[in-house]
């Protein structure tokens, strides 16, 4: 699976989500079942949800791919406000 495919899956399942996915570890074969991905997902759907619930939403969005194409998924989730704050703090 390619990173843009995983982004599209997440964005299709979580309302108004913007996902950025990369491969934090080098892989010889991106389609190998041992593929590790890292995702940053920003969505207003995370508003008022616990961190665990937010991450579960992402896992639910990825669904069957977690057993087929994605071995591991590092997740960072933010509401749009949290993400804007985070980027302001980094500057």
Automatic annotation (TrEMBL):
InterPro entries per UniProt: BolA, BolA-like_sf, BolA/IbaG_stress_morph_reg
Gene3D superfamilies the record matches: BolA-like (3.30.300.90)
Pfam families linked to this entry: BolA (PF01722)
Protein family according to the UniProt entry: Belongs to the BolA/IbaG family.
PANTHER family recorded: BOLA TRANSCRIPTION REGULATOR (PTHR46229), BOLA-LIKE PROTEIN 1 (PTHR46229:SF2)
Protein name: Transcriptional regulator BolA
């Amino acid at each position: 699976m390619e990173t843009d495919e995983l982004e599209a899956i997440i964005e299709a399942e979580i309302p108004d989500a913007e996902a950025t996915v990369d491969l934090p570890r080098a892989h010889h074969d991106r389609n190998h079942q041992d593929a590790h991905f890292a995702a940053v997902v920003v969505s207003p759907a995370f508003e008022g949800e616990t961190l665990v619930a937010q991450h579960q939403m992402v896992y639910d969005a990825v669904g069957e791919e977690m057993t087929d194409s994605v071995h591991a998924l590092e997740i960072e989730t933010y509401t749009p406000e949290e993400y804007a704050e985070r980027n302001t703090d980094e500057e």
